[in-house]
Write a structure and sequence with these properties.
This protein has 485 residues and is an alpha/beta fold. Helix content is 26%, strand content 27%. The protein is built from 13 helices and 20 strands. Helix 5 packs antiparallel against helix 13 and helix 12 crosses helix 13. The radius of gyration is 27 Å and the shape is flat. The two termini are 49 Å apart.
């Protein structure tokens, strides 16, 4: 039973964790179809408008059929280009190709921005496409025999490339299941039932890395949704653990840990701690994305860092001045001490501090306040998102996951770049920060604080971070950028 279990885990979990599949769904001659009145799609595949003589059509499907996300850096390096995979058709020449199907709209950027998608002789070059589990895309290509003959048989295509920590496999149609697979699945079901019976009859139900006790968690409101979800998941696995979650901001959380000097307190901060807290030790947890956002009525979708800096300096008072609608600018910020506010100042405003507030309600200037851009501040990420959505002309900033999915908000690109891990990891998108977990000194290895930090970085907690649109630092192409300066 032990040998079978290890073999099953190796085959379906370790080997299949990162797996890119390919399938040639069609490879056939076209004969006289190119001459018919319905040959529009084929004409799109012609090279320079030249007619194709005895072409063949190939429909190629690329899919992530592994157990985890495949990022751009997971493709084994072929050369210095942006190409992730190459598909060779021996004896034939690729005359043209089009993308016919994308399972998710985010895949479109890989084929429209940055290159990596091209035809070269007998090769189709495919970009380093980030792909969620079960994501796929299809390429329709027109090919001609390199020697100009009209034979109906071809050598099979060859896939050139690899996946780091995984493999590329040829997949089959999912219509029907091989008898051997059915037998294996049946055996595994029996095995799981047997192990479940042993598990239920055992004296303990505690997973190997569980810890018990009570842990207070303070700090970043931007990281709070991840903390709450991860704590609930941990509690379900480890019934002896108790969490008290009080997230009021990075600065306030760090100060609370520093003041109380409590080893059973864990503080999360968007960015590094300030000076004067030498007893607090950082642990990089996640690569955290932030986004600028406006009320949907501003008419603004893209800003340069220089424009953002001018707005926060008060030099732009109406969105019409930079091409938006005729609406006064209103700035909604986090209160001083917020890690998100510090990230904006450091990453976008060039190290310049935001001016103080001059409004309580985010709509009218306080009595006695000087005329100029209206500025107000809120305690939490959720409060900022809500205020920007409700306030005409408002501009604010928040953690990407908290700002996503609101019809009354526009997520603003910075110099044309969206808030994505790939864009930020490669230096194109500037508004990000490392999320740190701070403890009072080095926590005991068996403590709840140490166990929960491990859970966030290399267990289910890491998947929760990914599900919220961010990444564990270990997932990055350059994990060193997560480390303290």
């Amino acid at each position: 039973m032990a040998v079978t279990t290890v073999a099953a885990v190796y085959e379906f979990v370790l080997k299949g964790r990162k797996r890119l599949g390919y399938r040639v769904q069609m490879d056939t001659t076209v004969t006289d179809v190119v001459q018919s009145e319905h040959a529009g799609p084929l004409r799109e595949l012609r090279e320079g408008g030249d007619p194709l003589a005895k072409p063949t059509l190939v429909l190629l499907r690329i899919e992530n059929n592994g157990a985890t996300f495949i990022d751009t850096h997971d493709y084994a390096v072929l050369d210095d280009s942006l190409v992730g995979l190459r598909v060779r058709f021996p004896g034939r020449r690729v005359a043209g190709m089009v993308v016919t199907e994308l399972s998710d709209d985010y895949l479109r950027d890989s084929f429209t921005n940055g290159g990596g998608f091209a035809a070269d002789g007998d090769l189709i070059e495919l970009p380093r496409t980030p792909m969620n589990r079960s994501a796929h895309y299809k390429i329709l290509a027109a090919l001609e025999r390199a020697d100009g003959s009209a034979g109906a048989t071809f050598d099979p295509p060859e896939v050139i490339g690899g996946i780091k920590g995984g493999r590329i496999v040829e997949t089959q149609s999912r219509t029907g299941t091989p008898k051997r697979a059915i037998a294996l699945i049946g055996f595994l079901v029996v095995l799981v039932v047997a192990q479940l019976l042993v598990f239920l009859r055992s004296n303990t139900t505690t997973p190997m890395d569980c810890a018990t006790g009570r842990l207070k968690v303070v700090g970043s409101t931007a990281f709070a949704p991840i903390v709450r979800e991860a704590a609930e998941s941990y509690r379900q696995l480890c019934p002896g653990a108790e969490f008290v979650i009080d997230m009021r901001g990075s600065g306030e959380g760090l100060q609370a840990l520093h003041t109380t000097a409590d080893a059973n307190t864990l503080a999360f901060s968007d960015g590094e701690k300030p000076d004067g807290m030498p007893a607090l030790l950082p642990r990089p947890i996640a690569f955290f994305l932030f986004t600028m956002m406006t009320n949907a009525g501003t008419g603004v979708q893209d800003l340069t860092p220089e424009q953002i800096q001018r707005i926060y300096r008060g030099e732009v008072t109406n969105w019409q001045e930079i091409g938006g609608k005729d609406v006064p600018v209103r700035l909604i910020s986090r209160n001083p001490g917020s890690g998100t506010r510090a990230a904006l100042q450091r990453r976008v405003l060039g190290g310049v501090r935001e001016p103080g507030s001059n409004s309580d309600d985010c709509r009218t200037l306080d009595p006695g306040a000087a005329q100029g851009v209206l500025r107000c501040a809120r305690d939490s990420t959720e409060d900022v998102v809500r205020a920007v959505a409700e306030t005409p002309g408002a501009l604010g900033y928040a953690e990407l996951g908290a700002a996503t999915g609101h019809d009354d908000l526009t997520l603003v690109r910075i110099s044309g770049h969206r808030a994505t891990v790939s864009e930020a990891d490669h230096g194109a998108y500037p508004f990000w920060e490392t999320e740190y977990g701070y403890t009072l000194g080095e926590p005991d290895a068996h403590s709840l604080a140490a166990s929960f930090l491990r859970y966030l970085t290399n267990q289910v907690g890491a998947d929760i971070i990914r599900a919220n649109g961010d990444r564990p630092c270990a997932d990055l192409a350059n994990p060193a950028i997560c480390q303290p300066a």
